[in-house]
Amino acid sequence: MSRHLSFEGVMNPVWIIVIGVALIGLCGALFVQAKRRAGGPVDYLLRPLLTARETAFLADLWAALPEAVIHVQVAMSALIEVKGGNRAARNKLDRKVFDFAVCSANGDVLYVVELDDCHHSPHSARGRDATKDAIASAAGLRLIRYESGKVDAATLRSDFELILTVRRYAGAPSTRDVQDGALEGRSSDMRSTWL
Q1: Which of 15, 47, 103, 111 would staple 142 via disulfide (CB 3.0–4.6 Å)?
Q2: 48-92, pLDDT tens digit by residue?
Q3: Model confidence at 124, in pLDDT bands (50, 70, 90)?
Q4: How far apart are CA 108 and CA 120, in angstroms?
């Protein structure tokens, strides 16, 4: 007695169609996934560092604070270090920048500035702003927000002088003292009054 393989149930035309459609779908999904990984042609285009409003505001800062050194588009991670925590804590700084950093002539960061404009009304922008505010505060870094087009030179000047006065009155250490550990063990509230 010989045994024969029977494909009667498997070779049914319906099964062939189902298997064919599944294979086509699988191949299509793999093709799309491979294309996403590879991406298409990439063009790298130069874009302005600042928007027109930021450029105008920078000119206002220079005019109001001639003795200050002003940096633009400063990465949060360049000013704030994360100690402890996990990757999620470090990721909060990832790809976030302060619009301006106002520094003394010797390079000490006095405070940072965020310029809020019409793009800051959506809920997601307010959430990002709140994250920046909280991180800057926790690090003892003063952050001042101005509304685009609604601040004058006198306000910029008085805010600058107020921060200089507070720093002098509080005996604020320099940024270098902070880096060297002069504030180690002190609360972030004390750091924020100094910085």
Answers
A1: 111
A2: 999 999 999 999 999 999 999 999 999 999 999 988 877 888 888
A3: low
A4: 29
Segments making up each domain of the chain, as ranges: 8-40, 52-194
Tokens coding 120: 């800051």
Q: In what order do the strands lie in the sheet with 69-75?
A: 69-75, 97-103, 109-116, 143-147
DSSP for 96-130 reads -EEEEEEE-TTS-EEEEEEEE-GGG-SHHHHHHHH
Give DSSP secondary structure letters for 122-175. Answer: SHHHHHHHHHHHHHHHHHT--EEEEETT---HHHHHHHHHHHHHHHHHHTPPPH
